[in-house]
Amino acid sequence: MTNRIVLFVAGAICLLGGLIAVFNPLAASFTAEQIAGWLFLFAGVVQAFAAFREGWSLRALLTGLLGAFGILVGLSLVARPLEGIIALTWLVAIFFLVSGVVKVLLSWPLRSTQFFWLLLGSGALSAILGVMILAGLPASAGIVLGTMLAIDLISSGVALIALGIATGRST
């Protein structure tokens, strides 16, 4: 199978997943939350195993503690998905708010360049999205993660298909 076909197939799968998520953001939110939970759990188990195999040292202890924390977070997300969606939505909202403020601050030294308004606008948009999500919690938690997943899958699908087209033209 050529790279072009692989890119088209991956793009089509992403687009299909994104469209499904657009029409059912609550299910997509639960899916994203459960995937995050299982990834934390798996990563925590691997870290704890690595720490156990290393023997007794400060590094092994810290790795083991980090692994145990990952296991606890993973179990919490897997066992309590609704609370997990709310917690992850809080984190996303805070991330948007903080990244927005940071981008706005980073834009000021660029006032005399063509990039000032782009970075300032991006920062303002991120901060506004963060505030909007926070203002809508906990009710917004059911759709925020799923909607963001849908947007990411659709944009990734379009990008992969475009890359497949570009790959086909260059060979």
Round the mean pLDDT to the nearest integer and report it: 90
Count of separate DSSP helical elements: 6
Poorly predicted segments = none
Q: How much strand? A: under 5%
CA-atom Rg in angstroms: 20 Å
Number of domains: 1
Keywords: Membrane, Transmembrane, Transmembrane helix
GO cellular component, one term: plasma membrane
Pfam families: DUF308
Protein name: HdeD family acid-resistance protein
Features:
single chain; 171 residues; mainly alpha; 88% helix; DUF308_memb; Acid_resist_chaperone_HdeD; transmembrane; membrane
What this model shows, in words?
It is a single chain. The protein has one domain. Helices cover 88% and strands 0% of the residues. It contains six helices and no strands. The chain has helices at 3-23, 25-54, 58-79, 81-107, 116-136, 141-170. The longest helix has 30 residues, at 25-54. The chain is globular and about 55 Å long.
Topology (SSEs and partners):
Layout: H1 3-23, H2 25-54, H3 58-79, H4 81-107, H5 116-136, H6 141-170
Helix pairs in contact: 1-2, 1-6, 2-3, 2-4, 2-6, 3-4, 4-5, 4-6
Gist?
By secondary structure, the chain is mainly α. It has helices spanning 3-23, 25-54, 58-79, 81-107, 116-136, 141-170. It comes from Tabrizicola piscis.
